[in-house]
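call fold target=DNJC3 protein
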Amino acid sequence: LKSNPSNNEEKEAQTQLTKSDELQRLHSQALSAYQQEDYEAAISLLDEILSVCVWDAELRELRAECYIKEGEPSKAISDLKAAAKLKNDNTEAFYKISRIYYQLGDHELSLSEVRECLKLDQDHKQCFSLYKQVKKLNKQIESAEEFIREGRYEDAINKYDSVMKTEPEVPIYATRAKERICHCLSKNQQATEAIKVCTEVLQLEPTNVNALKDRAEAYLLEDLYEE
């Protein structure tokens, strides 16, 4: 403006300066809300800033943290994926995405994302540690499913028992393992055991269709037609 002043440009510049001041004010408020653990307010303020500063990786990472705290992991993943593209060698974003997928029980996507982290830095301690855990779990689940396809139900049950030992901290893996054990017992005509395990699954997930079907099959084996 100083080099070439004109009315139109001055108006535009003043508007941009005002907007810039406003965004800085919102940014301070968002950080303050985050520090006070008012994540809902922080998200609302960050939404406003990001509608203008679309390519700001740090703000997206901050909003992702808020989404995680608010129990909205899929929204956090969306922001972290954008941050991973916007910032070079963003191993931290890939690590966080992998962890979220893992907590959600999606071991295959978790493995895929943690590999992206290790491509950028093969010595990344957190990513390597997570990679070993997810790879081991993934291998056990694949192996168990292979046994089921081959009709080797006892072997599959043993393998799913191993899955529960490998990951005792994240409840969804135990639930999924029990769901598959319930299926194996039913297929293996171990009706009493099948009913017991299927019922455990259905106490956690009353609308689990697979467990309902497998328990129904087990009831048929016991001539319990009403059930």
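return ok
Residues 7-35 form the longest helix (29 residues). The mean pLDDT is 95.
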